[in-house]
Amino acid sequence: AWAAWALVHYRGPFKYAWVGLLHGAAILGHVLHALWAVPALYWLWKDCGESPGARFKALRQYGSVLAAVTLVPYAWVIVWVIAPGRRWGRIFFWLKGSAAITPDRHFAWHSVGWAGPWMWLKSTAPVIWGSFWPYGGTVVSPTIWVVTAISVGLFIFLIAQALRRAVIPAKAGTQYHSGLGPDLRRGDDVLVRFSLLWLGTYGLFLSTWEPGQLACPTADVLPLGILLAEGLARFKEPVRPLLIGLLLASVLTINLPTR
């Protein structure tokens, strides 16, 4: 989250060094977040305009700091914690991580085949709506299912509004922006495409790696939140706060009794 904030909002001379630092910290929290480099590089490319020099400088800042923040702690842990008193085979088991959780510790990709994308979608929904996975054997009432349908419908509606900013091109050469599509002079579709690339990169990986578990799909919340915000940005007062209130109230009404 902090790396995304720095990427989108920070404007200092060492912007991409900060992005690399915060991204590296996220990777140290969970190696899954190495995937965030894909949308980050897309934003870097767009943010630096058409200048090869600016792109190279930003890439150098980002890449060098990211590599240092990530690799130095790993090297320290291997040298001073993992390696002493252990054979190299045991060290290699540690490096393989959960991929080595097999009877004979061989590398195994935890895929479920073609059912993976559907399982990923099914595991993403419970992260937001507790009615899809109530805790403690809670029985979901018909009223909660009605509220869930309203909340999901509103969610899809706002995401669709955001997608229009990325797929409906503005008319070239117009002096004023009509508001019916992205103003390509301002590039207001870049944030939507950045979010879609973030969501797609993580989703593609998680569709093939343990798609049924709920820990990693929490990473989908941030890009989905950005898309929701972009969808809400299309509305003015008093519609926007009404939609925000309805979305929050519906999610709270669902999750309080189920979680």
> How large is the share of residues in beta strands?
under 5%
Q: Please give the radius of gyration in angstroms.
A: 22 Å
Give the helix tally. Answer: 10
Largest sheet, in brief, is: none
Helix/strand order, N-terminal first: HHHHHHHHHH
Average the pLDDT over all residues and give the rounded result.
84
Shape: flat
Give the strand tally.
0
Distance between the termini: 24 Å
Share of helix, binned: 55-70%
Please identify the structural class as seen in this structure.
Answer: mainly alpha
Which runs of at least 5 residues are low in confidence (pLDDT < 50)?
170-187
Question: What labels describe this entry?
Answer:
259 residues; mainly alpha; 10 helices; flat
Give an overview in words.
This protein is mainly α and 259 residues long. α1 packs antiparallel against α2 (15-29) and α7 packs across α9 (221-232). Residues 170-187 have low confidence and may be disordered. The two termini are 24 Å apart. The longest helix is centred in the N-terminal third of the chain and has 31 residues, at 52-82. The chain is built from ten helices and no strands.
Write the SSE topology.
Layout: H1 2-9, H2 15-29, H3 37-47, H4 52-82, H5 88-96, H6 116-128, H7 142-167, H8 190-206, H9 221-232, H10 239-258
